[in-house]
């Protein structure tokens, strides 16, 4: 077996959108008279929009109608879109493009596998649309991470077997999804509390394709 494809998570792996999610979730929490901490925001990484709202409601002990839930989801996303619409290609993490070019030059397939329904909009803002063989976002599968659907669809689009794919993730939901998909994974970042990754890198400048190949 050999490495045939890299499937990248987007938020927190290619660019830092967590700070924009935090601003808008903090506003939602404030409407519930609750202060959402940065530590709690970390726990929302990789978690879908609706599921994130449900977690905030649980933490704050808030019960609201289905209509209000929908209203908060719409408002949160509107605020988030205002932030991401200011993003520019300078917000791509250092070294990502170089690694991705190297992977493609080595004959690997590359895809995005993101829980975000805004993934394509962000990738467009970062001017990366043409850099991938496939893009799978949170609107394309029934189940979001930690279920494996997003990564399995990406592998399918790349015409690769899951066992030949390497997932690069920064969240527990994503690492769990990779495991359920039967894929090897790399933890991006230094969150020591996360489990299940086969390797860890602090940033893209530390990414070593030859080392990644030894996992297969
Ligand atoms: C994930 C983010 O990639 O996408 C989560 O890490 C976010 O924080 C989720 O909630 C859904 O994103 P969106 O853009 O569809 O609200
Ligand atoms: Mg992420």
In what range is the share of β-strand residues? 5-15%
Distance between the ends:
6 Å
Order of helices and strands: EHHHHHEHEHEHEEH
* Number of separate helices: 9
**Rg from C-alpha positions?**
17 Å
Low-confidence stretches are none
Could you characterize the architecture of this molecule?
By secondary structure, this protein is of the alpha/beta class. The chain has two domains: 5-15 and 89-213, 3-Layer(aba) Sandwich (Rossmann fold), CATH 3.40.50.1000; 18-84, Putative phosphatase, domain 2 (DNA polymerase, domain 1), CATH 1.10.150. It is 43% helix and 12% strand. Helix 8 (172-181) links the parallel strand 4 and strand 5. It is globular, with a radius of gyration of 17 Å. The protein binds 6-O-phosphono-beta-D-glucopyranose and magnesium ion (MG). 6-O-phosphono-beta-D-glucopyranose binds next to helix 3. Magnesium ion binds next to loops.
Fold blueprint:
Layout: E1 5-8, H1 18-31, H2 38-42, H3 49-60, H4 66-84, H5 96-105, E2 109-113, H6 119-125, E3 134-136, H7 149-158, E4 165-169, H8 172-181, E5 184-188, E6 199-201, H9 209-213
Parallel strand pairs: 1-2, 1-4, 2-3, 4-5, 5-6
Helix pairs in contact: 1-4
The structure holds 6-O-phosphono-beta-D-glucopyranose and magnesium ion.
The site of magnesium ion has 9 residues, from loops.
């Amino acid at each position: 077996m050999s490495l045939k494809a890299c499937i990248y998570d987007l938020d927190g792996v290619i660019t830092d959108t967590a700070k924009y999610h935090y601003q808008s979730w903090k506003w939602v929490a404030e409407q519930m008279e609750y202060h959402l901490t940065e530590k709690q925001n970390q726990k929302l990484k990789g978690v879908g929009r609706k599921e994130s709202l449900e977690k905030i409601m649980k933490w704050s002990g808030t019960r609201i109608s289905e209509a209000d839930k929908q209203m908060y989801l719409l408002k949160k996303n509107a605020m988030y879109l205002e932030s991401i619409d200011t993003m520019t290609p300078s917000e791509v993490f250092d070294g990502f493009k170089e690694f991705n070019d190297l992977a493609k030059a080595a004959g690997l397939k590359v895809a995005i596998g993101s829980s975000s329904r805004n993934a394509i909009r962000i990738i467009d803002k970062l001017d990366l649309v043409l850099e991938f063989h496939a893009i799978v976002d949170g609107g394309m599968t029934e189940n979001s991470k930690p279920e494996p659907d997003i990564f399995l669809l990406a592998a399918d689009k790349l015409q690769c077997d899951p066992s030949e794919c390497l997932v690069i993730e920064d969240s527990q939901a994503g690492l769990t999804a990779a495991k359920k998909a039967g894929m090897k994974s790399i933890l991006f970042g230094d969150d020591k509390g996360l489990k299940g990754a086969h390797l860890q890198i602090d940033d893209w400048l530390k990414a070593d394709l030859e080392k990644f190949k030894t996992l297969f």
